Each structure stands twice: as C-alpha cells, then as structure tokens.
C-alpha cells in the first residue's frame, strides 16, 4: 500500500464518522492546549523572576513598620506603597553599615480616568533622579537621570502623545524617557521629580476628582543597594535595629516566597494537565476501539488484497495523526491567544508579574504541545490498530 493510498484511506475513514473525528479533534485540542498553557505559565513565571533578579537594582526596600507587607509588592510587582514615613529616614538608612546607596520614592496616588491608560489606573510616583538606581535598568528610550522640573518617565503602558507632552490637572509634563514592559505596575506608572510632584498635588486639590497627595518632608519607601560583600539580610536587620519604626525587607526573602508560590502553581498545573491527558487517552482509546471494530470488514478486504499488517496499522495511525494535528493546532492557538489576551488579569490573580515569552521560546513551547498531543493520540490508536491488523482476513470479513 502506497503512502498516497494510506492517506486516502485515512481521509475516507475521517469522512465516514464525523462524530468520532470531532471527538478526537477535541481531545487533541484539550491536550495540546493544556500542555501549552502549563508551559507558558511556568515559563512566564521563570522569565519574570529572572528579569526581576537581573534588573531589580534595589537589594532592600525600607518602609514604615505598618506597611511591611507592601514592601514585597514594591520589589516583585512594582506596586507603590501608599504609606508615609518621615523623609529623614532616608538619611538615617544611608548611615547604616553595609548600605551603599539609597533613593527615596513617594507615591502620590492613582488617577482612575486618565486618557493615557487604556485599562486600569495611572499611578503617579515621585522619585529622586539624582540617586535613583531602580528605573535605569528598565529604560527603553531616553534617560532617567537629571530629570528637570516638569519632566516625567513613563511606563510602557502609558500612551505618550506624539509631542511627548502629557497634561495632568493642567500641569504639562514632558516625557523624557519610557520604560520597557516589565509585567508589573511599573508599566502603568508615571514617575516625576519631587518638585513636580508637589506642583501636581497642588493642582490636584482644585480638581473635582483630585486624588494626588505629596506631603513635603515625607516619603513612601526607601530603595536600598547594599555594599559589595554585604549580606542583604544582615543589613536589613541592622536597619531595623538602628532606625526605629522602619521595616526593611530583603529581596532574597521575597524571592524565596515567590519561588515557593511558583513551585506550588506548577505542581497544580501539572496535576491538571496529567488528569486531562489520562482522561483524553481513555476517551481516545474507546473511540479508536469502536472505529477498529466498525471497520474490521474493510480491513479484512484490504488484507485479502495483499495489504500487510504494517500497512493497515500505518493507515490507522495516519488517520489518527491527521485528526490530532488538526486538534493540536487549534489547541495551541486557543491557549496562546487566551493567555496573551488575559496576561494582565492572570498576573494580578496569580500574584506575580506575567510577561509573555519571546517568539523563539513560544515556538518551542508550541512544538512541545503539538508533539504531546500527537503522541497521546498515536498511543491511544496503536493498540486497537494492532489488534485489528492481527486478525486473519477471512475472520474479519465473516464478522
């Protein structure tokens, strides 16, 4: 039996049983979709962790004691903390042994109806461009240092007008730099110098929906870089001991929790994927067993005409793989499109910055998802195919 004959026989079998064909396609879709979705989530979590470690900049975040839990979000999700503490904490922290550099930030508030953000709120944060070391690694274009009054740094999700000038509460802001996508709240943030922040807060008070607040002499958080050779946890402990009322959280502690969270997520996804594969294989095995039973006379005729057992098995598997490939392609397209569309809500729900993998990694993951779907369908079809191919032609035609 030639390859063309095997493909023709496979297509004839597919057309002869629409219900069975649709069932096999759906099972392949589920398998490929689950495999790709699991791999995408795991890869996105790992990529986000790696990028955060590479570009974190700050080894510690210092906040007021009551806002200790906010420090984790500040490092991992880029979420600004709304708590306030005296600005003098910045100089106190800088004097602690093991601290190499400090930079203060002040969260002014969120603008819910900003025309510069398609979804969510526009977060406004003041920072000191002369001492900052956290935004620089994320710069896509422009520069974050020596920011003049009336200038700003925009996150990747902020819609910058062609003239690169925004207006908040009547205050014009020239966008000097934009940041690369981070998968965090940095994408929705607008960073300004402290003097610009005070002007924005004054202008905000006159507006009906004014929500910005920038009290002089106060900061929300102090980002800390430890000196070479110093251990972040020891420096954090020293800050807590020497600066009364301050809470210092080290990035290693936060990423330890983050890794544990990701490990639990991956285990849960793998369990769901395995259950889906096992259930699909059982359904596919039943579908192919019924198909083999229904076509036993046809196979008997083929054997009587000289078709070998191997040719019969290959024809059967060709039909299975055509259906598996169709379902697998649909599965990876649906999974990839769904995760791409809902990546932001996924990141918020799962509690980690979600960034879509590069095109190269995505291509590899798609191939893996298709390969698993093809393998599952092939295994499910193999046993019924071998069983019916082993029957004697005369026996098959009599049944």
Give a short overview.
With 399 residues, the chain is an alpha+beta fold.
Describe this structure in words.
By secondary structure, the chain is an alpha+beta fold. The protein has 2 domains: 3-51 and 258-398, no CATH class; 56-250, no CATH class. It has helices at residues 3-16, 18-55, 68-76, 88-94, 194-205, 232-242, 251-294, 296-304, 309-341, 343-350, 359-390, 393-398; strands spanning 60-64, 85-86, 99-111, 122-127, 139-142, 151-154, 165-168, 171-179, 189-192, 218-219, 221-226, 246-250. The strands form 2 sheets. Strands 1, 3, 4, 5, 6, 7, 8, 9, 11 and 12 form a 10-stranded mixed sheet that branches. Strands 2-10 form a two-stranded antiparallel sheet. A hairpin with a 2-residue loop joins β7 and β8. α2 runs antiparallel to α7 (251-294) and α7 (251-294) packs parallel to α11. The chain is elongated. Mean pLDDT is 77; it is low at 394-398.
Please supply descriptive tags for the structure shown above.
single chain; alpha+beta; 2 domains; 12 helices; 56% helix
Low-confidence stretches: 394-398
Number of structurally distinct domains: 2
Mean pLDDT across the residues is 77
Beta-strand content: 15-25%
Q: First CA to last CA: what distance?
A: 24 Å
Helix content: 55-70%
The general outline is: elongated
The number of strands is: 12
The class by helix and strand makeup works out as alpha+beta
Cα gyration radius (Å): 30 Å
User: Total number of helical segments?
Assistant: 12
């Amino acid at each position: 039996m030639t390859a063309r004959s095997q493909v023709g026989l496979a297509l004839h079998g597919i057309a002869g049983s629409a219900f069975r064909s649709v069932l096999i396609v759906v099972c392949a879709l589920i398998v490929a979709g689950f495999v790709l979705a699991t791999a995408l989530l795991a890869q996105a979590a790992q990529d986000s962790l790696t990028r955060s470690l590479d570009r974190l900049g700050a080894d510690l975040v210092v906040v007021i004691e009551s806002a200790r839990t906010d420090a984790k979000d500040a490092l991992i999700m880029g979420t600004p903390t709304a708590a306030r503490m005296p600005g003098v904490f910045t100089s106190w922290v800088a004097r602690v042994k093991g601290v190499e550099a400090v930079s203060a930030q002040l969260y002014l508030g969120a603008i819910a109806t900003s025309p510069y953000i398609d979804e969510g709120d526009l977060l406004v944060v003041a920072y000191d461009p002369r001492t900052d070391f956290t935004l620089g690694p994320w710069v896509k274009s422009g520069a974050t240092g020596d920011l003049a009054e009336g200038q700003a740094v925009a996150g990747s999700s902020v819609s910058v007008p062609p003239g690169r000038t925004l207006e908040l509460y009547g205050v014009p802001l020239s966008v000097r730099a934009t940041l690369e996508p981070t998968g965090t709240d940095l994408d929705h943030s607008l960073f300004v110098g402290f003097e610009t922040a005070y002007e924005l807060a004054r202008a905000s008070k006159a507006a009906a929906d004014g929500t910005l607040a920038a009290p002089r002499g106060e900061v929300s958080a102090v980002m800390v870089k430890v000196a070479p050779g110093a251990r972040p946890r020891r420096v954090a402990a020293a800050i807590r001991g020497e600066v009364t009322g301050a809470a210092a959280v080290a990035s290693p502690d936060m990423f330890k929790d983050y890794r544990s969270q990701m490990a639990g997520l991956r285990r849960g996804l793998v369990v769901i994927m395995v259950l889906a594969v096992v259930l699909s294989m059982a359904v596919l095995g039943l579908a192919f067993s019924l198909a083999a039973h229904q076509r036993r006379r046809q196979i008997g005729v083929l054997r009587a005409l000289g078709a070998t057992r191997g040719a019969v098995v290959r024809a059967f598997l060709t039909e299975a793989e055509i259906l598996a490939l169709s379902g697998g392609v649909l599965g990876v397209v649906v999974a990839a499109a769904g995760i791409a569309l809902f990546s932001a809500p996924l990141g918020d729900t799962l509690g980690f910055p979600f960034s879509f993998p590069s095109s190269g990694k995505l291509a590899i993951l798609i191939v893996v998802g298709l390969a698993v779907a093809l393998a599952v369908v092939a295994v499910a079809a193999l046993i019924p195919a071998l069983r019916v191919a082993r029957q004697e032609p005369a026996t098959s035609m009599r049944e």
